[in-house]
Amino acid sequence: MKNTPSDFGLTMTPHMVTIDWHEANGWGDIHLQKYHDLSLAPHSQCFHYAQGVFEGLKAFRQANNDAALFRAYDHARRFQSSCERLAIPVLGEDVFVDALLTLLKADLQYLPDIREGTLYFRPFIIATEPSLGFYGRAKSFKFIVIACPMSNYFSSTNAINIMVESNYSRSAKGGTGAVKAIGNYAGTILSQQQAKEQNYHQVLWLDANHNKYIEELSSSNIFFVYKDKVITPRLSGSILPGITRDTTISLIQQNNFTVEESSIELQQLINDWYNGDLLEVFVTGTTAGITSVKKIDYLQHSLNFEQYLTAQTLAQKLSDIQISKTQNNQSWLTNLNCHKK
């Protein structure tokens, strides 16, 4: 199985889960259905006002051949935060996880063998009310879970090249950058396309206020490795609180290494690289996992990295937890055959 960002998510499993919400009745029941196209009116509000959010998480084949979702309840809580920010009805944590497990059970045969890949889940919710009226929360929503098998998101390389975006901003404090709103990603596509045309894998965004502090990539958080510590941008209200980011911080701390969350000025980072203090860079995300960075380009500066040991070590530790090769952090796993409602 080989996936790259260009073909990720093209082949879906044969089932999907839906739950409808209506203003008069609230949330309905979980429905497992054959995967099918949606029938929505062209004036449905999701098409015009982007009232919708999503999550992304994975299921892993376990060492005992069971299947488990990784940090499903943490994703459920972040999904709730996203819904609250966009005035969308909040779905209960248990219902969210039960919907995922329902689809996992139905399409279990599509979960790749251990170490060969994962089953990626995309839960999302959209406003389905057919109305162009812009008056607040829509009167109907649809929650959907779909899934696809995947391998390494950046399978064509062991390390990625990054371009720093200095003309546009991804998000501002007080906006929606800290949640997974569907509209957040549209504003990054132009920069991502321009980066792709110049053979970069991803775009690194700076803060909107000063255009000098590092925030995150279009779909990943970022970490910087020094001799005695690891630094990552602190959550400032415009950065997505990544689940893999949080996992990575925990793994670093469990290995008695210092991790700092702070404001990181790009120019200081460049100076640290020229001085030989900045040793390694890696990114984290549900699809990206823990991926090393080979190069960061900004204006006339080109920061090249040849050390990937920290990222590789953390990635191995993470993988061992996800497939239950180690008994550490087992609370992060929700096993299909052991889960009780």
UniProtKB/TrEMBL annotation:
Source species, domain of life: Bacteria
InterPro entries in the cross-refs: Aminotrans_IV (IPR001544), Aminotrans_IV_CS (IPR018300), Aminotransferase-like (IPR036038), B_amino_transII (IPR005786), BCAT-like_C (IPR043132), BCAT-like_N (IPR043131), BCAT_family (IPR033939)
UniProt record, GO biological process: isoleucine biosynthetic process; L-leucine biosynthetic process; L-valine biosynthetic process
Modified residues (N6-(pyridoxal phosphate)lysine): K180
Gene Ontology MF, one: branched-chain-amino-acid transaminase activity
Pfam families registered for this protein in UniProt: Aminotran_4
Catalytic reactions on record: L-isoleucine + 2-oxoglutarate = (S)-3-methyl-2-oxopentanoate + L-glutamate; L-leucine + 2-oxoglutarate = 4-methyl-2-oxopentanoate + L-glutamate; L-valine + 2-oxoglutarate = 3-methyl-2-oxobutanoate + L-glutamate
SUPFAM superfamilies assigned to the protein according to its UniProt record, in alphabetical order: D-aminoacid aminotransferase-like PLP-dependent enzymes (SSF56752)
UniProt pathway: Amino-acid biosynthesis; L-leucine biosynthesis; L-leucine from 3-methyl-2-oxobutanoate: step 4/4; Amino-acid biosynthesis; L-isoleucine biosynthesis; L-isoleucine from 2-oxobutanoate: step 4/4; Amino-acid biosynthesis; L-valine biosynthesis; L-valine from pyruvate: step 4/4
Enzyme Commission number(s) from the entry: 2.6.1.42
Classification via CDD domains: BCAT_beta_family
Family stated for the protein in its record: Belongs to the class-IV pyridoxal-phosphate-dependent aminotransferase family.
Main function: Acts on leucine, isoleucine and valine.
Protein name as annotated: Branched-chain-amino-acid aminotransferase
Native species: Pseudoalteromonas maricaloris
